[in-house]
Amino acid sequence: MSKIARRTFIQLSAVAAAGVVVAPGRKAAAQDLPQLTEDDPMAQAMKYVHDASKVDPATRANPAEVQNCANCALVQGADGDAWRPCQIFPGKVVNAAGWCSVWAPKA
After folding, report:
1. In order of start, what are the domains of the chain with their CATH numbers?
2. What confidence tens digit (pLDDT) does each residue in 86-107 have?
3. Contact at 8 Å (CB) between 4 and 46?
4. Which of 1, 23, 3 is nearest to 102 (CA)?
5. How far apart are the C-alpha atoms of 33 and 29, rounded to whole Å?
6. pTM for this structure?
7. SS3 of 71, please?
8. How many whole angstroms separate alpha carbon 55 and alpha carbon 60?
9. What is the largest CA-CA distance in the chain?
């Protein structure tokens, strides 16, 4: 089981709840959504990068060299898509090769 700090859990819960409230009835296709930028305030707060290989595995909460958005439980969309929606960044798509500090393994 992943150990997530209470503060991080509360932040993630707030973001997820906001995503549900903002767009409850419309499903946007990934191609309709803007790409998340690394200088986005939320991206910076979650230490998001477009290229996971540039992140030192030792600095990650759950060290693993194979962590990326494509194998994160929070990313949605079709496997193989270069940019996919993520529950952490509602209304934007993330790079499948990217990474952020709330990466969680798929069950």
Report:
1. 33-107 (4.10.490.10)
2. 999 999 999 999 999 999 988 7
3. no
4. 3
5. 7
6. 0.70
7. helix
8. 8
9. 41
